[in-house]
Amino acid sequence: MIALKPEAITAAHPNVTLSREDEQAFVALRRMLPTLEAFWEAEDVDQDEIDEVMGRLQKHWPRLFGLLLGLYGTQWDFFYHLEQILMTMVRGWRMRDEPLRVNDRHRINNPDWYQSEKLVGGALYVDLFSENLGKLREQIPYFQKLGLTYLHLMPLFAVRPGNNDGGYAISNYRSVDPRVGTIEDLRQLADDLREANILLVLDFVFNHTADDHYWAQQAQSGNREYEEFYFLFRDRTMPDQYEKTLREIFPTVRRGSFTWHDGMQRWVWTTFNSFQWDLNYRNPDVFNSMLSEMLFIANTGVDLLRLDAVAFIWKQMGTMCENLPEAHKIIQAFNACSRIAAPGLVFKSEAIVHPDEVVRYVSREECQTSYNPTLMALLWESLATRDTKLLRRSLARRHKLPEHTTWVNYLRCHDDIGWTFDDEDAAAVGISAFHHRQFLNEFYTGQFEGSFARGVPFQHNLETGDMRISGTLASLAGLEQAIEADREDLKELAIRRILLLNASMLSVGGIPLIYLGEEWGALNDYDFVKDPAKAGDTRWVHRPKMQWKFLEELGDDGSIRGRIFRSLQKLIEIRKTTPAFAGLEMELMETQSPSLVSYVRANASNRVIVVSNFSEFPQTVDSNRLRTAGMGRFFEDLYTGETITTAKDVHLEPYQFLWLHRV
């Protein structure tokens, strides 16, 4: 028999009284125990395993029950779906290999493991980086040489032919794209990465499926059960009502959020592309089905899941259908399920929305980590303006996150750059947000006089003026322009900008993430237009194929690529051996120059002062400020090894940064 004792909670915590809802949760679970017991018996599960999973169920079930009750409790067959979800979790846990369970137990006892200074990430497309998963395994020594301990593989599951939105139109969550390998190849890669102490990160694309996914095919065949997995409309009445408050995501590709399907004679809700069908999470079958897919992916050996397009997963008439409370409940419910079935798994939120909305997805009970799009945008903004006032205001107001969570910081990724700073923050420092975004778009497409950037417009909406920017880190930072001009002074400045941005990402607090190719200065690849499946999407300009021949230059002291690689390698090594860079604790330090940003990172007894010059002109720091912030008179620059004294003011060269540790 299974022991289920909610009173054990009150015995362990005598000041805690179970709520009425918690009591109902345990009553519901007790009623499902016969189904569980039949499963244990059929699977011949030993008592130790039963006790382990039941302990987690007892801890997390009340939260999960409350979330599911709020989402689906009014449905007449709610308790049927509740039991289905329970059994999906238990089956998912049962399929989990022992090495993953060992990790689970370790992480339960070390809940802040993902806040370590030793985490440094890289992201890549398998086909562009190494052709396939087998060859990717051969590159693990390269990742170790660079210093990576976290590897994010862009979507690699089976996709529709032709345009598939860079892998985000998934046809089958349980099959790898045959061009890059098999599920077994993925499992072997996960095993090898685990042995090398490198975390594996994959995407969970759960807002939509491809139009050729099995569920979508069944809907197209008239299967009523699967028609209810999506949003289908016979005429434009409801789509027109919804679109009164919806915004267009890709306005230059298609207008509106609905696509007419001739075969079904229905309008289909397609937020992003016409071939990406939004899932209907009002249907508990959709939640349970996607939970099953999520646990399958987790059991391949994944450590973190990037939750794609989290803002869009719940629809409500009369709203933008973004960032709704139910969207948070869906993610929190997935989180509670993973705490039971795969407790070592961590979520990463991808919400490229207003900064106030980004942080609402971040908590231990929702997404423990989150992309930091505002930091990325404001680092580039500071380079363009040579003024860090907007960056400093954002760091002061928006860097802090709830306990047990952290940022994932990046300079470039597979996606575009959107200027997602807060308009009120901009106004507070004397900036007109609309006009400033226009300036930044002109600057980073090279249209502003004196610009060093070589970016490309993405989704330029002529009606609204809205635009985002495509381009590699090196091309946006001026290296492409410098090489074209064949000017050594411009090359030097471009390299300094690249290293300054990387030093900022690595030191500010959070997990740094490098889009691979940037570590040696990859430039824009304009040949993407030769591929019809990519020609209409300028983001492919910054997704170049890995040029392994260029890596032969990494040992060449005179090579630009070699210098960038070795410098970044050194920065990563310093970060991984500096405890102050763990977690998010960060205190801004005042400077006399608007071109400077400075902050103190502290952890236990370790303390580092970071000072960065976002200008091509020398700047000066008041030595007395360094003395009082660092509690010392002598400091070592961790990057150069130079000793800095506070007996006189400290000077920074163009785009120089300092990582100062007291000696």
UniProtKB/TrEMBL annotation:
This is Amylosucrase. Residues 123-575 form the Glycosyl hydrolase family 13 catalytic domain. It comes from the Bacteria. CDD domains: AmyAc_Amylosucrase (cd11324). The lineage of its organism: Bacteria, Pseudomonadati, Planctomycetota, Planctomycetia, Pirellulales. Gene3D superfamilies: 1.10.1740.10, Glycosidases, Golgi alpha-mannosidase II, Oligo-1,6-glucosidase, Domain 2. It holds the Pfam family Alpha-amylase.
